[in-house]
Amino acid sequence: MHVVIFSKIFKDQNKEVIQYLFDILAEEKINVSVDHSYFEQIANEIKFSSEVNVFNGYEDFIKKKVDIFFSLGGDGTFLSATTEVRDSGVPILGLNLGRLGFLASVESKYLKEAIVALKKGMFILDERTLLHLESNYPLFGELTFALNDCTILKRDTSSMVRINTYINGAFLNSYWADGLIIATPTGSTGYSLSCGGPIIFPNSENFVITPVAPHNLNVRPIIISDNAVISFEVEGRADTFLCTLDSRVESITSSHQLAIRKSDFRIKMVLLNNHSFMQTIREKLDWGRDVRN
Q: What sign results for the dihedral spanned by CA atoms 192, 193, 194, 196?
């Protein structure tokens, strides 16, 4: 088995856990590569008991056979991992060093059990839909997809924006708001949820459109088929606005014409011990627990 370790920032507070991870991988005789940027950060911090190779990005998926891509961090790191994996088909396992962890679901205290389960093939793959952004002007380079959401937002403290929204070319609404979120089922537990959007099960084949602080209080989130194409025209007093794909952001103007559709590929998530979406939301949202005291 060949795994790649990916993370964004090395934190000294996580050194013990990271050392433990590499010790287990060496003990289980698993071939390891480390993302080149992260390797530079940990090379003088971690003691490697076996040979570790350097992984140089998306092109290396063609050169090397990779079985599992380890995302070491929180949900933000997992989202960054998708920009490395892209359409390679390599599954991602989220090892949680963050806080809430809807995507990075494996806690550090279960590292040993998780790696042994991986080696024995005791896991399932959960395929997640992504959205794809199209624009009349270039945006986001080659990374025009998102696992969680795409948002259109006002800049700084400027006045609200008007976002004229169409579904399959038919006019839906003009959203007067601080912004608009278009989320996948995976992203329904992220920014959309904090703005009052519903939780959607991963394989529901839907998108949710959630306004951010809408001016009209009768405007509510709506769920549509992910086979639809959602297009936008943005107006406002400011010259520029913000468009995001997951954690990536670019500036846009009213001359941008944007459209969102389902991506042509999916991301594969590794789930261990039959860990289900229902179990995740129960644990992360404290459902069924009396937390009043």
A: positive
**pLDDT tens for each residue of 28-52:** 999 999 999 999 999 999 999 888 9
Token digits of residue 16: 């013990």
Cα angle 92, 139, 104 (rounded to 5 degrees) comes to: 20
Q: Which CATH class is domain 130-265?
A: mainly beta
Classified by CATH at the fold level, domain 2-121 comes out as: Rossmann fold (3.40.50)
User: Of the candidates 100, 95, 139, 135, which has an alpha carbon nearest to the alpha carbon of residue 117?
Assistant: 95
CA–CA separation, 230 vs 30, rounded Å?
44
Is the pTM here over 0.90, yes or no?
yes
CB-facing half-sphere around the CA of 224: CA atoms within 13 A: 20
Catalytic residue among 12, 60, 67, 75: 75
Q: Look up 75 and say whether it is catalytic.
A: yes
Q: Are 187 and 252 in contact (CB under 8 A)?
A: no
Coil, helix or strand at residue 44: coil
Q: Which pair of structure tokens corresponds to residue 62?
A: 């063609």
